[in-house]
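Many introductory courses stop at the sequence. We go one step further.
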Amino acid sequence: QVQLVESGGGLVQAGGSLRLSCAASGMIFSLNRMGWYRQAPGTQRELVAGITSGGITNYAESVKGRFFISGDNGKKTVYLQMNSLKPEDTAVYYCNAEGGYAFWGQGTQVTVSS
């Protein structure tokens, strides 16, 4: 089993920045990819950004150039730096880790006011 603990959500004005963190514990040796998803009310959960254990990243088109994912592969910790936030970025953000199975954090609320 893998446990994921997220932190860093909150309320910010449009144009501001937030940094999310996610720390994995448990059977972390099995993980080969970590990432962030988000879900706004009435919508499906969507990928925001991901990073492999080899450092390869991918981003949703809507966040490219504004959000940046990074990680500490040894500690299995992943970060999401979110800049130039927009009201449409408002959602619950979930940390995800994959290694044969998919594991999810409890989610952290990000609210961007206009």
